[in-house]
Automatic annotation (TrEMBL):
It comes from Dokdonella koreensis DS-123. InterPro entries: MdtP/NodT-like, OMP_efflux. This is Efflux transporter, outer membrane factor lipoprotein, NodT family. Its main location: membrane. GO terms for molecular function: efflux transmembrane transporter activity. It comes from the Bacteria. Keywords: Lipoprotein, Membrane, Palmitate, Signal, Transmembrane, Transmembrane beta strand. One of its GO terms (cellular component) is cell outer membrane. Belongs to the outer membrane factor (OMF) (TC 1.B.17) family. Pfam families: OEP.
Length: 482
């Protein structure tokens, strides 16, 4: 009668022991990149199957000094060491999670003694020192009946994938930052050249004005105006040269070196922007080319496995422990057959009441999944926006640069005519001053726009992933909750 009653009661106990997961479910849904309309925004750009950036994309710029600087930065920037350390931390957590799935075996030896006073217990027990010596070998193993430990390990593996990709992304970002800072250095040199030309024009105008004053054509007012233009031009040139020093210091910091390293960086070559092209498989392949998207996808996977681990905790589990050893009072008989002992202790755990801890833990895991999905979806939107914005900007810069060059040519012709008229006593110094300022602004505008175009082409390389190619990608059907 008793065995049959136990068989009836046991299922009820097991059912009661399983805390309820009712109503707990993540709500996040991964967005399909094809659902984000981008055809019209990107349709006017030439497509090419080979338009994805190469991993060493900066070599196409054709500047050996830039190649060497990026190689130096990749070898010496401390930020990369931090990214690598975070990746190693994630791998260590994988090891910890895997160890939780394995049995543990341990050995121990102990000796404890006690002398009981005769005032407590009479002899022969009292007044005598006794020692308990023991040697033991223990074993324990927690079964993973519902896959919770495996899911926790898989979540750690997914996080390690994400951390590894973050480390690769840090290298791609550093390469782009060095290249963009190098372009700014080239721009600073060009601005310094323009300022130097303005100095020469100011000095030349001052010389002409002195000749006209000596000839009685101009007054002291025009002379003072011409004299004031020289130190103003000098100030602009000094500011431009200071910008060169500043950009060299910035580059040195990116290399992980001191400011003196920047002094050895020579003037960059004139760099040409790459042809404006887009990959034929955009946006579908962008998912595997952008490190931020791939890392975010792995984190969605990790959150999904964390939910599975949290759900497994609602169900009963079996733990097994055992021990064998030797024990004896005093030193005699420790290794005798009479000193042997063993222990075998299987146990079943039933979560009956925990104050809502399991449900709160699962709710937190669901929320973490929703957060990971939201971050992935936002990264996807930002990635397409980034590509479209770079394309729009580069496409707009082409006519802007042509217009600015035409304006600069016209301003140069006007300055030459104004100066000839002034030299011949027909025009005024005010005419020269006005067109001289127009020429300066036009030349600076051309330099700024050309720099923006080269910088924009590098930004487009970044937007397209910077040459990143994932060694492993999350499963395509990883969204188990969609």
């Amino acid at each position: 009668m008793r065995p049959s009653l136990a068989m009836l009661v046991l299922p009820l106990v097991l059912a009661a022991g399983c805390a309820s997961t009712h109503g707990l479910r993540p709500e996040g849904r991964l967005r399909d990149p094809d659902s984000l309309a981008a055809r019209s925004s990107l349709g006017q750009v030439e497509v090419s199957a080979a338009a994805w950036p190469r991993r060493d994309w900066w070599r196409s710029l054709g500047d050996p000094q830039l190649d060497a600087l990026i190689a130096e930065a990749l070898a010496g920037n401390p930020g990369l060491e931090a990214a690598d350390a975070r990746s190693r931390q994630a791998l260590a957590r994988v090891g910890v999670a895997d160890a939780d799935r394995q049995p543990t075996i341990g050995a121990s030896a102990s000796s404890s003694g006690l002398r009981i006073p005769e005032t407590v217990i009479e002899p022969p027990t009292g007044g005598h020192y006794s020692a308990l010596n023991s040697l033991s070998l223990s074993f324990s193993y927690g079964f993973d009946l519902w896959g919770g430990k495996r899911a926790a390990w898989e979540a750690a593996v997914d996080e390690a994938h994400a951390a590894e990709i973050d480390a690769q992304a840090a290298r791609l970002t550093l390469s782009a930052n060095v290249a963009r800072s190098y372009i700014e250095l080239a721009h600073a040199f060009e601005r310094a050249d323009i300022a130097d030309h303005e100095r020469e024009r100011a000095r030349h105008s001052l010389e002409l004005t002195r000749q006209r004053v000596d000839a009685g054509i101009d007054s002291a007012l025009q002379l003072r105006q011409a004299e004031a233009a020289v130190p103003a031009a000098e100030q602009q040139w000094l500011a431009a040269t200071a910008k060169i020093d500043d950009e060299r210091i910035t580059l040195a910091a990116l290399l992980g070196a001191g400011p003196d390293r920047g002094l050895a960086i020579t003037r960059p070559q004139r760099l040409a922007p790459a042809a404006l092209q887009l990959p034929a498989t955009l946006p579908a392949e962008l998912l595997g080319r952008r490190p931020d998207l791939v890392a975010a996808r792995w984190r969605v996977e990790a959150a999904d496995h964390a939910i599975a681990s949290a759900r497994a905790a609602f169900y009963p589990n079996i733990d097994l422990s055992a021990a064998v050893g030797l024990a004896a009072l005093g030193g005699d008989g420790l290794f005798s057959a009479q000193g042997r002992y063993y222990q075998f202790a299987p146990a079943i755990s039933l979560p009956i009441f925990d104050g809502g801890r399991l449900r709160a833990n699962l709710a937190g895991s669901d929320a973490q999944y929703d957060l990971a999905v939201a971050q992935y979806n936002q990264n996807l939107v930002d990635a397409l926006r980034d590509v479209a914005a770079r394309i729009t900007a580069l496409r707009s810069l082409v006519p802007q640069i042509e217009a600015a060059r035409q304006a600069a040519r016209t301003a140069a012709d006007a300055h030459r005519l104004a100066e000839e008229r002034y030299r011949n006593g027909i025009g005024s110094y005010l005419d020269v001053l006005v067109v001289q300022q127009q020429l300066l602004v036009a030349e600076q505008r051309v330099a700024d726009l050309e720099t923006q175009r080269i910088d924009g082409s590098i930004a487009l390389v970044q937007a397209l992933g910077g040459g990143f190619e994932a060694d492993a990608a999350p499963p395509a059907d990883a969204d188990a909750h969609s």
